[in-house]
Amino acid sequence: MTAMNDAARMIEALLFAAAEPLSQRDLSDRLPDGVDVDAELRALVAHYDGRGVQLVEVAERWRFVTAADLAFLMTRERVEPKRLSRAAHETLAIIAYHQPVTRAEIESIRGVQSSAGTLDVLLELEFIRMRGRRRTPGRPVTWGTTDHFLEHFGLVSLSDLPGVAEMKASGLLGLNLPPGFDVPDPSAAVVDEDPLDPADAPEFHLDFLGDRETGN
Amino acid sequence: MTAMNDAARMIEALLFAAAEPLSQRDLSDRLPDGVDVDAELRALVAHYDGRGVQLVEVAERWRFVTAADLAFLMTRERVEPKRLSRAAHETLAIIAYHQPVTRAEIESIRGVQSSAGTLDVLLELEFIRMRGRRRTPGRPVTWGTTDHFLEHFGLVSLSDLPGVAEMKASGLLGLNLPPGFDVPDPSAAVVDEDPLDPADAPEFHLDFLGDRETGN
Amino acid sequence: MNVQIQPTLDFEAAMVAAVEGEGLIVDLDGYEGPLHVLLDLARSQKVDLLKLSVTRLADQYLAFVREARRLHFSLAADYLVMAAWLAFLKSRLLLPKAERPTQEAEAPEVAASQLAFRLAKLDAMRRAAEALFGGSVLRRDVFPRGDPESVTVVSLTRIRGDVRELMAAYVQPRLRGTDHSYRPKPIESYRLDDAREHLKALIPGLTEWTPLSVVAPARRASGPTRASYVASTLSASLEMVREGGLELRQFAPLSEVYLRAAGVA
């Protein structure tokens, strides 16, 4: 703990919370009468000297900035997306409900071609995994969700995914649904799928790229 | 000048620069290997104790905020909160203390039917989220709070909710009359009720780590 | 009409009762339901809610409902149901106990403690809400950095896990798909110009009153509907009546329309 007088605390808080640099005048307008703003600012500058944050004066206004020698920390690019893109969100939702589902099926439900990047993002986040191969010509790879997905969304099992009734109750679905609209039960048993065999794994990248080129 | 090691300076700078709270993992991802982030954070908390700016943990992340006793100075920064109805207050408290909880359970605690608007308001404020479904007939949707809720109310985690430990100990957070509950007349007949099944009890800490909400 | 339910008189009566200290101030708008009323009444007993006298609470509530009913004739059913249940519960609590507990209903003491438990719970939640909103609320009591660095450091580890959003993300493409497949067929209609040409060709032969249904062209295998042929022919004929080339008559509303060339004797 660093002992600190009230005036210095107030100045520190005001400068921290302000949306723009404040002049001595701004500060004294917002502080009780009799505060020696100038002296307090000098004391604060001295206090922050050598720390990760500095109190600086620019154009007669005061503001906190991070120490110049630490700028390298602030330029770090973010790798993971903070928010899933709409495409990723939709793709994830379709995989969750329709699994095991092939890429072509995802595209036909979304009505647009998926970019390979979307599945990559979901794979990297460990939300989806390859489940097996569909027993149809071409034996396309099928996708499903991971345990991490369940954990992340607070679901105990796939059967916990909300169904049509909840979609209606939450106003997402209107009352006049298109004929034949149903939501599959992702926890139902699957028949037309072969498990992945170990030899599939190295081919993964190939499948993936190949898919993109032949996708319609 | 306050002597300070490099790791502490970096953490201070990162947290100062950040637009939102950072987790220990966020910090260690950006720091050189071998930094004891936890210890440095404790040291920083101690350093800022009593100052105008405080280092606090919210939703298991760290952020600097102004000291609460200086709120009176922040007239310009203050955002007048949306006036919430008493129904919304009670509903939010019930969800926070009983999560995961269904709408029917909320209604039974409040003794009145909730208007759909109440949950909508809380959803819009990003205080609550759907968590999953209860394993009971009809598989109703369950509700829980978000990280944004914790950040807004300055709570580290759900176990930090005011009075939660006492309420839990006294059985007040169960949905049924707890076994051995103090019945006014000791000569009363046997309680016609099954003991609480552990699986029925609200699960406070379940899947909290999985919840990564975006605060704005 | 009973003079007692006149609002002004009631208001006076309530005031008198309140001044005398025996009346309840009944403002139903302040309550969401019976449980909220009961909680306020229970708090006035100033005892641990779990040790509350349910018989006394029942009396207080019944008095409240009686008063409320006088003021709001259409008192909500749930208030009355609660009143009936409390009256029943009170009577059972006061009755001597049966030798053997009967099976058909739960012991009144249990029902009473259930009620006490519900009130204690609601009370706890109300206090919890007060504590939450009385704590360090962001941007009311504590303030984050007002001007984060231009290169903002953002948390890496936060991705929303919201089932509702997932659901919404699922519904959107599903409905979008159905929107795409819906292609209503444009309705083909018999053009007015064509109807006019058709009539012009027929006029010389229309020396007798001829029904519209006969004059209008027959429907073909594809193309406009019969209704469209009839409607367009009628429209075109009205125009030709105005121009003086044709006469129309109809004997009754909705009956057949007859056409004849103008100037036929």
Please give a quick description of this structure:
The complex is a heterotrimer, with 2 copies of chain A (216 residues) and 1 copy of chain C (265 residues). Chain A is α+β, with helices and mostly antiparallel strands.
User: Please, how many domains of chain A?
Assistant: 2
**Beta-strand content bin of chain A:** 5-15%
Largest interface comes to: B-C, 79 and 63 residues
Give helix and strand order of chain C, one letter per element, not per position. HHHHHHHEHHEE
What is the topology?
The complex is a heterotrimer, with two copies of chain A (216 residues) and one copy of chain C (265 residues).
Chain A: H1 6-17, E1 22-23, H2 24-30, H3 37-48, E2 53-58, E3 61-66, H4 71-74, H5 86-98, E4 101-102, H6 103-110, H7 116-124, E5 128-134, E6 141-145, H8 147-152, H9 164-169, E7 193-195, H10 200-214
Antiparallel strand pairs in A: 1-3, 2-3, 4-6, 5-6, 5-7
Helix pairs in contact in A: 1-3, 5-7
Chain C: H1 7-20, H2 34-44, H3 54-71, H4 77-94, H5 108-133, H6 163-181, H7 192-202, E1 210-211, H8 212-215, H9 226-243, E2 246-250, E3 257-261
Antiparallel strand pairs in C: 1-3, 2-3
Helix pairs in contact in C: 2-5, 3-4, 4-5, 7-9
Q: What this model shows, in words?
A:
The complex is a heterotrimer, with 2 copies of chain A (216 residues) and 1 copy of chain C (265 residues). Chain A has 216 residues and is of the alpha+beta class. Chain A folds into 2 domains: 6-74, Arc Repressor Mutant, subunit A (Orthogonal Bundle), CATH 1.10.10; 86-200, Winged helix-like DNA-binding domain superfamily/Winged helix DNA-binding domain (Arc Repressor Mutant, subunit A, Orthogonal Bundle), CATH 1.10.10. Chain A has 10 helices and 7 strands. Chain A has helices at residues 6-17, 24-30, 37-48, 71-74, 86-98, 103-110, 116-124, 147-152, 164-169, 200-214, and strands at residues 22-23, 53-58, 61-66, 101-102, 128-134, 141-145, 193-195. In chain A, strand 2 and strand 3 (61-66) form a beta hairpin. In chain A, helix 5 (86-98) packs across helix 7. In chain C, helix 3 (54-71) runs antiparallel to helix 4, helix 4 crosses helix 5 and helix 7 packs across helix 9. The radius of gyration of chain C is 40 Å and the shape is elongated. Chain C has a 3-stranded antiparallel beta sheet. Chain C is mostly helical. Chain C is built from 9 helices and 3 strands.
